[in-house]
Amino acid sequence: MPYMTYTQLKTSAKARMTPVMGRLVGAAAIQIGCTFLISRVSSIPALFTNSFALQILLYFLSSILCGTLTGILEAGLCYLFLKLYCNRPFSAGDLFYAFTRQTKTCLGLSFIMSLISTIPTMPAYAFFLRFSISMEKMNLTAISSNMDASAVTIPPEMLNLLSIALFCYTPALIITTILDLIYSQVYYLMLDFPSCSVKELFGKSRLLMHGHKGRLFYIRVCFIPLILLGIMTCGIGMLWIAPFMYAVQTEFYLDLVTKRKV
Questions:
Q1: What sign for the dihedral angle of Cα 90, 93, 96, 98?
Q2: Smallest Cα–Cα separation from 248: which of 134, 78, 107?
Q3: Which pTM value belongs to this model?
Q4: Is the separation of the CB atoms in 109 and 201 below 8 Å?
Q5: Predicted confidence band at 76 (pLDDT cuts at 50, 70, 90)?
Q6: Does position 30 have pLDDT exceeding 60, yes or no?
Q7: What is the pLDDT of residues 155-177, one digit of tens each?
Q8: Which of 84, 91, 198, 219 could form a disulfide with 108 if both were Cys (CB 3.0 to 4.6 A apart)?
Q9: Nearest CA to 105 among 35, 206, 194?
Q10: Can you list the alpha helix ranges (DSSP code H) found in 18-90?
């Protein structure tokens, strides 16, 4: 039996969502609000501008913390959509499922996923931080000398820092994208196979996604215009777009897991 195309996944997701769209929008509002509050932790490193090493350390720790908490919320959203697809009653409270049940497993999954997304970007962040610190010092020097900051020429060594940062960020983006695709199903698998360990769940996701990473990547690329539309509406549109994206991804998971052994 062939796997479903993006168009088929999208059509099925819309049909499933329509009767309960109001509750899904409410759940999306709570999830987006919680994610926004969690993301504020990432602003902590900027408070310590006098220490480069401390900023690097705090950026790493805050990124891991934000990623872990966001991952736990994502697991709750997966739980909500699996209940929807199993024709079971759901509520916005399901978003916090992993804070009370399967907490240890979900914490392990979220922690590792946050490491996967953070570690490859650390070199790029370090060079970006060096560049921004140098720019700030240069602007302060220009202001103290009564010079026009916009007329100050950026030294070649600072441009080199920016170039190296961009050079480091490109492979980091490729690595994190590939790893995210490979392990994209860990939260769904955790909910379907509650007795599995963290290591087993990562192995199952790797097996499940074998030969399907390109298909999921295409689906996510198709989401980009919708995400841009949501941004253009000051984020309000994401209240409808986010549930649709998760519904399609749930369809994708169910399509995979019912047609191959894990």
A1: negative
A2: 78
A3: 0.88
A4: yes
A5: very high
A6: yes
A7: 677 778 788 888 889 999 999 99
A8: 198
A9: 194
A10: 21-39, 52-85
> What pLDDT score was predicted for residue 161?
79
What CA–CA distance (Å, rounded) separates 99 from 64? Answer: 17
Distance CA 237, CA 84 (A): 22
Enter the tokens of residue 30: 């709570």
For the chain, counts of helices (H) and of strands (E): 10, 0
CA angle 95, 97, 99 (to 5 degrees): 105
Pairs from 98-102 (Cβ < 8 Å, separation ≥ 24):
98/72, 98/73, 99/72, 102/75, 102/190, 102/191, 102/194
Which pLDDT score is estimated for 57? 87
Query: Which candidate, 204, 216, 202, places its Cα nearest to that of 109?
Result: 202
Give 151's contacts (C-beta < 8 A, 6+ positions apart). none
Would you tell me how many other CB atoms lie within 10 Å of the CB of residue 70?
Answer: 19
Residues 6+ positions from 195 with CB-CB distance below 8 Å: none
Contact call for residues 187 and 110 (beta carbons, < 8 A): no
Q: Which two tokens stand for residue 96?
A: 């916090």
Helix, coil or strand: residue 194: coil
Examine the pLDDT at 43 and tell me if it is beyond 90: no
* Position 143 pLDDT exceeds 90: no
Q: What is the DSSP string of 198-257?
A: HHHHHHHHHHHTTTTHHHHHHHHHHHHHHHHHHHHTTTTTHHHHHHHHHHHHHHHHHHHH
Q: Closest by alpha carbon to 242, among 15, 33, 68, 47?
A: 33
